[in-house]
Design brief:
heterodimer, A: about 325 residues, alpha/beta, Rossmann fold, Alpha-Beta Plaits, six-stranded mixed β-sheet, four-stranded antiparallel β-sheet, 14 strands, about 35% helix, B: about 230 residues, mainly alpha, MetI-like fold, 10 helices, binds adenosine-5'-triphosphate, binds magnesium ion
């Protein structure tokens, strides 16, 4: 579990102080994956580096499993670092060591020796699916394979927390998938708490339970991905959900037009057809579509309704768990 | 009109001088590398963005090193006479020449080593930091090991530089090939000495280059062909 409270970090810049972090508060529950997103220069890497104990914040606290890490020094600092696995931004493997040798590095630092070390390295290579590359050097591996080895190395000393700064930024979509699968397995099989910095909403869509949006060093949005998508004002929702095209001409002929967000198999599959038959309304899909957030199917549709009981149908959908936002009151002019 | 020195005599003197030169170059390279490498590590650790950044100390250290590097060797040879006497209770001969040669090369090696170590990418070093490794361990198994091939080449560069400087060892009676070339070849217009020493010096320099290239390749674990 990671708790960040009131974290502040300034850097000396050419035009005065740069406030990279300005009172950041975050919570990552044990065994969940938090995605940190935001525009370039928002402070994402600075946040990750502070939590990785590579950068010392000006003020605030960072607690991992209850212990405040900000003020540690010397041996205590090194011991704390072993609790936190880090996949640094960019290429970070030792080029003079094999894949297995790289994974062994944190175990050497922790004083794990001999057969115990070899077993642990083998376990991790298996976890990331690169057992057959144990003897290969980084120069012989693809970008995605190198990144998976970096994840294996970060997990070697059994940390409770895993940090990854843009782990997929240099990768094509296929390889990105393989790296994300590995991060997801770390959480699922090892129970690790994961904080991943990314500019790719695809990463959030695929593996994140929670998301935090940083802007100018402040958290402007923070919550569960599935909660945020039903929030009409959320910018996370706007970038995660299927887009709906504006088409006023088509919308004019309906009594009601609404955007509906549906979450989960049952809702996505059954809610709209059931509303049609219950209330005897005609329901047309005008736009939107289906996506998946992790394992959960999520849909956003723009629908047009015709019929006496259109309002009741929308109300029922809302009560049944759909999130409904009306965009057009229609010719009947009845406000809900 | 003088007759040319017989080749057998040239050969004998050449052999002695070659031995003296190799002795001076090998020993002073060893000492300079042993003492200069820690200086280079220290420079890199204290650099801004290094593992133990100490900007002021780094500046001072860098200044001293560059001062040492810019010192003409001939001046060093004279200035260090009393140090040589202190260490060896003699200021004459090839062994005495080793003192200024080594001392002169320490700052040279220091800068070379720092440059080589600074080539290790910062994310590689930070990855090691986040594993909770001690600074000593990071220096040993990351900084030095990752740059070992380049360090070997730096040793070769140092040895060849010292081969050049050792020619001036004649000033303190150090002998060697350079001294022979100047004494017999230049001052006495003896072409046989002049050209044969030039050839031997070239052969030694080439040999140093070939050997260090091979060793550097040997310690480089990166393989570009797939295993
Ligand atoms: N070491 C540093 N020295 C000075 N300024 C810094 C330093 N590190 C970060 N900054 C500044 O802090 C701010 C936040 O930087 P940070 O790298 O955390 O952004 P980011 O969100 O990771 O951006 P990106 O998406 O481009 O990686 C920027 O204005 C940056 O210029
Ligand atoms: Mg960044």
């Amino acid at each position: 579990m990671i708790t960040v409270e009131n974290l502040t970090k300034t850097f000396p810049g050419s035009t005065g102080q740069v406030r990279a972090l300005d009172g950041v508060n975050l919570d990552v529950a044990a065994g969940t994956v938090l995605g940190v997103v935001g525009p370039s220069g928002a402070g994402k890497s600075t946040l990750a580096r502070c939590v990785a104990l590579l950068e010392r914040p000006d003020s605030g606290s960072i607690r991992v499993d209850g212990t405040d890490l900000v003020s540690l020094d010397g041996t205590a600092l090194r011991a704390a670092r072993r609790q936190i696995g880090v996949v640094p931004q960019g290429d970070s493997l030792l080029r003079q060591r094999t894949a297995a040798g790289n994974v062994a590095l944190p175990l050497e630092a922790a004083g794990v020796a001999g057969p115990q070390r070899r077993n642990r390295v083998a376990e991790l290579l298996d976890l990331v699916g690169l057992t057959d590359k144990a003897g290969s050097y980084p120069d012989q591996l693809s970008g995605g394979q190198r990144q998976r080895i970096a994840v294996a190395r970060a997990l070697a000393a059994s940390p409770s927390v895993l940090l990854a700064d843009e782990p997929t930024s240099a990768l094509d979509p296929d390889t990105t998938g393989s790296v994300l699968t590995v991060l997801d397995r770390a959480r699922a099989e090892l129970g690790v708490t994961v904080l991943v910095v990314t500019h790719d909403m695809g990463v959030v869509r695929k593996i994140c339970d929670d998301v935090a949006v940083l802007e100018d060093g402040r958290v402007v949005e923070h919550g569960k991905v599935l909660d945020l998508v039903s929030d009409a004002a959320s910018r996370t929702a706007a970038s995660l959900l299927p887009a709906v095209d504006q088409n006023p001409a088509a919308e004019g002929s309906f009594d009601r037009v609404a955007d509906i967000v549906l979450i989960g198999f049952a809702a996505v599959g059954a809610l709209l057809p059931e509303a049609t038959s219950r209330f005897g309304v005609e329901l047309n899909l005008l736009g939107g579509g289906l996506t998946r957030l992790g394992e959960t199917p999520v849909a956003r549709f723009r629908v047009g309704l015709k019929g006496e009981r259109a309002d009741s149908a929308l109300e029922w959908i809302s009560e049944a768990g759909g999130s409904v936002r009306r965009t057009l009151a229609g010719p009947q002019g009845v406000a809900a | 009109m003088r007759t040319a020195t017989p080749w057998s005599e040239v050969f004998d003197q050449l052999l002695v001088a070659t031995g003296e030169t190799l002795y001076m170059v090998v020993v002073s390279t060893l000492i300079a590398v042993l003492l200069g490498t820690p200086v280079g590590i220290w420079l890199q650790l204290t650099a801004p963005g290094g593992l133990r950044p100490r900007p002021v100390l780094h500046k001072v250290l860098g200044f001293v090193v560059d001062l040492g590097r810019s010192m003409p060797f001939l001046v060093l040879l004279v200035v260090l006479t009393s140090l040589t006497r202190l260490l060896l209770s003699s200021t004459i001969g090839p062994t005495a020449a080793i003192v200024p040669l080594s001392v002169g090369a320490i700052p040279f090696v220091g800068r070379l080593v720092q440059n080589v170590l600074s080539e290790v990418h910062v994310s590689v070093v930070e990855a090691a930091v986040t594993t909770g490794s001690s600074t000593l361990r990071i220096v040993r198994s990351v900084l030095l090991r990752e740059s070992l091939p380049a360090l070997v080449n730096a040793v070769g560069v140092t040895a060849i530089a010292l081969l050049g400087y050792s020619a001036m060892a004649g000033v303190v009676g150090g002998g060697g090939l350079g001294d022979l070339a100047v004494r017999m070849g230049y001052q006495r217009f003896n072409d046989r000495f002049l050209w044969s020493t030039v050839v031997v010096l070239a052969v030694i320099a080439t040999a140093i280059q070939l050997i260090t290239n091979r060793v550097a390749r040997g310690v480089d674990r990166r393989r570009t062909t797939s295993a």
